[in-house]
What we know:
The chain has about 190 residues and is an alpha+beta fold. Helix content is about 25%, strand content about 40%. The protein has 3 helices and 9 strands. It has helices at about 1-15, 25-40, 40-60; strands at about 65-70, 85-90, 95-100, 105-110, 110-125, 130-145, 150-155, 165-175, 180-190. Strands 2, 4, 5, 6, 8 and 9 form a 6-stranded mixed sheet that branches. Strands 1-3-7 form a 3-stranded antiparallel sheet, with no helix packed on it. Helix 2 (about 25-40) runs antiparallel to helix 3. Mean pLDDT is about 90; it is low at about 1-20.
Amino acid sequence: xxxxxxxxxxxxxxxxxxxxxxxxxxxxxxxxxxxxxxxxxxxxxxxxxxxxxxxxxxxxxxxxxxxxxxxxxxxxxxxxxxxxxxxxxxxxxxxxxxxxxxxxxxxxxxxxxxxxxxxxxxxxxxxxxxxxxxxxxxxxxxxxxxxxxxxxxxxxxxxxxxxxxxxxxxxxxxxxxxxxxxxxxxxxxx
Length: 190
């Protein structure tokens, strides 16, 4: 009987620490966090809400919280200067800041790992594909935590493209799952 109990405990612990344990309903977690907060247990309330947020993250498709053109290189997550418009001079580089959510984290050797690959397609105003490149950008994340404040920055050089209106489409493929997500940004070279 002790062996069976120890085995059951080991399987349960393994499931909990590997994130395989059954998910609690989000509404229950919200109520628990509300109670913890009312009791002055702010850190516990935060961790409970984080647990709920990660459940939403895991169930989400790969989407983008933000995707926009920025001026210069971002200094970190949320640290960027948005461009005042989407009009670029000939030869000017396009810098895209994106915040992906819903991609899969995979634990290996005590670290959380994620890998996103971005494909790029440039279309003219009439919809014709002017240029495309699979694997234009690769974003590897290794962390002790399943970070939710993650950014991807793409710098695109369309030197030589004629003046006109375009759309850039970025498709991200999650290499840890079968999720894909994309966004489009219209711009003009003038």
